[in-house]
Design brief:
alpha/beta, 15 helices, 5-stranded antiparallel beta sheet, TIM Barrel, about 500 residues
Length: about 500
């Protein structure tokens, strides 16, 4: 039996710092505000937080364009503010995971500033320059190559031009990142979330990517063959320094791709976008993802339905903008299914999407880049705006409206407490996982107890567990389960719970 890791005990909460809590009155979230909400997170039952980038940055891409890996952006506070947050979290039994962006740095990072237009720079080989660009395109639209004015060369950027890709063929880059990891481990962090980690350019620039139906297929610019060796070294370095939680963002919804990166010598978990980023609600699609993850994934899956990069769950899944009944049922699934749950800030308040109405309302670089690309292709301003609105990631990034704790918030607290209290909800293996109409039912078991869960998202169905002789932990144990109703039952085998 595999040893239990501390992160299996936790319900995690993602904090998108600029929109979480403003502690100094400047209109932007910060570490002072986060410190004020640690008791709130403890009351909610959170065991770990993941904080999005807070490093010095021009904020071209919401902090994912880092100009200094080993500091706090003054807009969010000081390094001592961060240390106080870590200490306060640890004092409440909350672990702290931070984002680590290793694919690229800001064009204002001192390494690139020195390398720019300077072939003699010691940092020139930290980046990828060429005389002859290939056809690779940016994931934010347009060419992935930007010309230098003086040398005649081009530098490579998978995302915005201000996000310059690092050259992972250079061993000095790897040594720099080890120093970064050591810095934040010394500050007390408990793990790292590695941003787009499968995008690292470990094998240099290769063949042109193929085109399919007018779109570029990103075949040679991601998942390069040399990546696994680099990733194993990075994970070994981290694990030698403590029992950390190592999370990978893999830029794919394909489980066959995701599972390649999860192993004892690779990442502890990967973000399961095959489940979490489904654009519309479908009980059958959710069930299919749960089944595939259970049968094909080498470790625990992650369970999330919202993040800073996507539309909020209620806006995607709700039958109307205030459909908290379905949100409550989805939450019951998230906290009882096998895996590691991640709650995005504000979901407990039933928040819906922020919807920009014009270009001035769009902050996200992806939306704005698509706007400019559409204009350059000859589209009108209105046509370009329509495209930008479909690509912008502003939907879930509006500031949280701190206020009263309503019925949905209480469901979050109670269901999190249930998972925290019942070991089988954290460790149990499935003994059954089935779909009847729109009702997802499963049983999980350990040596000490068993739990039965049924969550019905459609027309009334017979409760599959009504005859089970177990304690009703939550929900309705009626013979029939109505729409968005659920039941959670448990039987112990003699050990104290």
């Amino acid at each position: 039996m595999e040893p239990v890791r501390w992160w299996q005990e936790c319900v995690f909460y993602q904090i998108y710092l600029p929109a979480f809590c403003d502690g100094n009155g400047d209109g932007r979230g910060d570490f002072i505000g986060l410190a004020q909400k640690i008791d709130y997170l403890h009351e909610l039952g959170i065991g770990g937080i993941w904080i999005t980038p807070f490093y010095p940055s021009p904020l071209v891409d919401n902090g994912y364009d880092i100009s200094d890996y080993c500091a706090v952006d003054p807009r969010f506070g000081e390094l001592d503010d961060f240390r106080r947050v870590v200490a306060a979290c640890h004092g409440r039994g909350i672990r702290v995971v931070i984002d680590l962006v290793l694919n690229h740095v800001s064009s204002q990072h001192p390494w690139f500033v020195d390398a720019w237009n300077n072939p003699a720079s010691r940092y020139r080989d930290y980046f990828i320059f060429t005389d002859q660009p290939n056809n690779w395109q940016s994931f934010f639209s347009g060419s992935a190559w930007m010309p230098e004015p003086d040398t005649g060369q081009f530098y490579y950027h998978k995302f915005a031009p201000q996000q310059v890709d690092l050259n992972w063929q250079n061993p000095q880059v790897e040594q720099e990142i080890y120093r970064v990891m050591d810095f934040w481990l010394a500050a007390g962090v408990d793990g790292f979330r590695f941003d787009v980690i499968n995008f690292l350019t470990t094998d240099g620039i290769g063949a042109d990517n193929p085109q399919s139906a007018g779109e570029q297929e990103h075949l040679y610019d991601v998942n390069q063959p040399g990546l696994m060796a680099v990733l194993r070294r990075l994970m070994a370095y981290a694990r030698a320094r403590g029992e950390l939680f190592l999370i990978g963002e893999i830029g794919s919804e394909d489980l066959a791709v995701l599972r390649r990166y999860q192993a004892a010598d690779l990442l502890d978990v990967v973000f399961n976008f095959n489940l979490g980023s489904q654009k519309t609600f479908s009980a059958a699609a959710i069930f299919a993802a749960l089944t595939a993850m259970n049968e094909q994934q080498p470790g625990l899956p992650t369970l999330f339905f919202s993040s800073h990069d996507m539309s909020r769950m209620i806006s995607r899944f709700g039958e109307n903008e205030r459909d908290t009944d379905r949100a409550r049922a989805v939450l019951a699934l998230q906290l009882t299914a096998r895996g590691v749950p991640f709650i995005y800030q504000g979901e407990e308040f039933g928040l819906t999407d922020y919807r920009p109405r014009c270009l001035a309302d769009i902050s996200d670089v992806q939306g704005r880049t698509h706007y400019q690309t559409a204009l350059a292709a000859g589209m009108t301003a209105d046509e370009a705006l329509a495209i930008a609105l479909t690509h912008t990631r502003d939907a879930s990034r509006a500031p949280l409206p701190w206020g009263e704790k309503d019925a949905l918030w209480k469901d979050y607290r109670e269901l999190i407490a249930l998972r925290n209290h019942i070991p089988v909800l954290r460790y149990g293996a499935y003994t059954r996982l089935a779909l009847t109409d729109a009702c997802i039912g499963f049983s999980r078991i350990t040596a000490d107890e068993q739990v039965w869960v049924a969550i019905n998202f459609g027309a009334p169905v017979r409760n599959p567990w009504q005859a089970v002789a177990g304690e009703v932990l939550y929900g309705d144990n009626a013979p029939w389960l109505g729409k968005n109703q659920f039941v959670i039952k448990r039987r112990g085998y003699g050990k104290a719970q």
